[in-house]
Amino acid sequence: MIMNVTANAASGMAVNDECKLKFSELKTKRNYRFIIFKIENFEVVVDKSGSPDDSYEDFTQSLPSDECRYAVFDFDFTTDEKCQKSKIFFIAWSPDTSKVRMKMVYASSKDRFKRELEGIQVELQATDPSEMSLDIIKTRAL
User: Fold this and answer.
1) What is the pLDDT of residues 60-80, one digit of tens each?
2) Which of helix, strand or coil describes residue 76?
3) Which residues have C-beta within 8 Å of that of residue 64, sequence separation ≥ 6?
C-alpha cells in the first residue's frame, strides 16, 4: 500500500479533488471541525472528518498512533479582548512509532500538499500527542 509511494515522493503526490473540496467547505461553510488526510496509492485522500460539534479531543483521538497523517483543524478561541476568532491549523502528524519510510514520504510531500489548501493560518509538526496539546494550540493561535 504505502510502501511503493517513495519513488514518486520527490515530485510530490497527486491530491484527490475531495481533499480540496472538503477543505473549502471547512473554511467557508464550517461543515467540519477537522479533516484528516492520508497518502494512499501515490495520492493524498481524505481519511476522516469531524462534525462542527466535535472537540479537539475527538480530533486527536482520530489520529492513528503508529501512522503518519496530515490534518486540518478549525480552532475557535476568544482573545484577551473578548473577541471570538477562528484559526485553521495544518498539522503534520508523524508519530515516532511510524515506519521510517512512511515518515520520509509524508515529510517530502507535505509542502506540496499544503500549497493545495489555501487559507492555512498556523502549521504544527507533531511526533507525539504532547507536541500538539490543546495548550500548545491555544498559544499558537494567539
Assistant:
1) 999 999 999 999 999 999 988
2) strand
3) 95
